[in-house]
Automatic annotation (TrEMBL):
Species this chain originates from: Candidatus Caldatribacterium saccharofermentans
Residue ranges of domain HTH lacI-type in the record: 5-49
Keywords, ordered alphabetically: DNA-binding, Transcription, Transcription regulation
Source organism phylogeny: Bacteria, Pseudomonadati, Atribacterota, Atribacteria, Atribacterales
Listed name of the protein: LacI family DNA-binding transcriptional regulator
GO molecular-function term, one example from the UniProt record: transcription cis-regulatory region binding
Matches recorded under Pfam families: LacI, Peripla_BP_4
Presence of keyword Transferase: no
InterPro entries hit by this protein: HTH_LacI, Lambda_DNA-bd_dom_sf, Peripla_BP_I, SBP_2_dom
Length: 374
């Protein structure tokens, strides 16, 4: 085990007095803001662990922008809120903005206002499009604002990094599951989505089609149906899809529609149809347990919200960077009898606390201010 880093070590490294280092790290007494930041950064690099909360010489302003009105986004918000509470003692001012789904118009209006308002230091955003918000992200970058994308990426922009699922790989995983359960059975696989142009939905469908084509599987995966809610999903499956000759599978490429699909198939008899759902909630766990939905692909919504802010704050305060500009959370296939919404969500929260605890012991990362999460 290495020698414990002390205030004396930091002072010697920077050729300043022990008293100056003490004032800088405690926030008590006058220290030049630039020198204070230099001392804090070097303390982190050396592995020094703060015993208290370091007050920032200049408070940071961080904005979070993502959709609302769905259980999936509620889980994202829980992760965001836990991260906000963790870093609030540092004097960081957080603002949260929500839009109705992946609404490009609403996001544009909000970003336009923010861009021409008071300076913000960090922005965490779920872009409603892969490229059409690049202007705003790049403009913020020029102004000194660091942008993190999560759930949906903007890979051609000046965003610092992305946190979330790899949509294409999730679609390919769906293809593997269909191959496992259907084998070489010829038929039609429908993809149900709430928004045909939503980036993450498009990428999952594209991943599925790429996998089927590359493997030469006898599935027609060209059919994509847009449904706006559970009732419409129920009606479309019962009145249209079940009448389709050769129907062998349904891929629900979003969190919305799983209940409707499950209810329609339960009432009509599953008839050998393989269903791969998306995400996991108590509302449709029964269909998973009964084998009506064969598998759900889980993408850790809580961690998407939580980690995007943790990484952004670390970057703003201590220059933290990732080894790669994309941090892909694994997509987990959950089959009947293997897990539950409660257990995977407990795992997410446990992992978040472990990550924060480890961050307090690692150079160039942020420790948990004020103790453990509420």
């Amino acid at each position: 085990m290495g020698k414990k880093v002390t205030i004396r070590d930091i002072a010697k490294e920077l050729n300043v007095s022990i008293a100056t280092v003490s004032r800088a790290l405690s926030g008590k007494g006058k220290v030049n803001p630039e020198l204070r930041e230099k001392i804090v950064r070097r303390a982190r690099e050396l592995g020094y662990t703060f015993s208290g909360v370091f007050p920032l010489p200049q408070p940071k302003r961080v904005v979070v922008l993502f959709p609302t009105d769905a259980f999936f986004w509620d889980k994202v918000e829980e992760g965001v809120s836990d991260a906000v509470r963790s870093f609030a003692p540092w004097g960081i001012h957080f603002e949260m903005y929500r839009t109705q789904g992946h609404n490009l118009g609403e996001q544009t209006t909000i970003l336009e206002k923010l861009l021409h308002g008071e300076r913000i230091d960090g922005l965490a955003i779920v872009p409603s499009d892969l490229t059409r918000l690049d202007y705003f992200i790049n403009a913020f970058f020029i102004r000194g604002t660091r942008v993190v994308t999560f759930n949906v990426d903007a890979p051609l922009s000046k965003r610092v990094f992305y946190v979330g699922q790899h949509g294409g790989e999730a679609g390919r995983m769906a293809g593997r599951i269909f191959q496992l359960l259907l084998g070489n059975r010829k038929g039609v696989i429908y993809t149900l989505t709430t928004h045909k142009q939503a980036p993450s939905h498009v990428m999952r469908w594209q991943g599925l089609t790429d996998f089927v084509r590359e493997r030469g599987l006898p599935y027609d995966v060209s059919r994509v149906v847009e449904v706006k809610g559970e009732e419409e999903a129920y009606r479309v499956v019962k009145e249209e899809l079940l009448k389709e000759e050769g129907l062998c599978g349904i891929f629900v490429s979003t969190a919305f529609g799983n209940c409707g699909v499950g209810r329609a198939l339960k009432e009509s008899g599953k008839q050998g149809i393989v269903v791969v759902g998306n995400d996991l909630a108590k509302e449709w766990e029964t269909y998973l347990e009964e084998g009506i939905i064969d598998c759900c692909l889980y993408q850790y919504p809580y961690l998407q919200g939580f980690l995007s802010l943790v990484f952004l704050v670390q970057h703003l305060l201590f220059g933290f960077t990732l080894d790669a500009p994309t941090f892909y959370l694994p997509t987990i296939p959950i089959f009947s009898g293997t897990s539950s919404s409660q257990s995977v969500q407990q795992f997410e929260r446990l992992l978040s606390r472990t990550l924060l605890w480890e961050a307090g012991r690692t150079p160039q990362t942020v420790s948990v201010p004020g103790g453990e999460l509420p």
